[in-house]
Amino acid sequence: MKNIKIIVEKHIDGYIAYPLGVQGIVVGEGNSYEEALADAKSALRFHIETFGVEVLENDSPVLEASVVEMSI
Fold it and tell me: pTM of the entire structure?
């Protein structure tokens, strides 16, 4: 078992969730935070079954993530 950090974003039309530090693209969506997280978990399991556990092997794992807003 491996712990994976998941980003969950709230948008006008629902939520999206995606893991950090995973090779490839995995996204979950739903009408609620919980639905998006569950969908991302299901998508990640499918991704691992399809491409192998190697997609989780990362020489530089994400230790921390931040959301920052700036003006440009």
Answer: 0.82
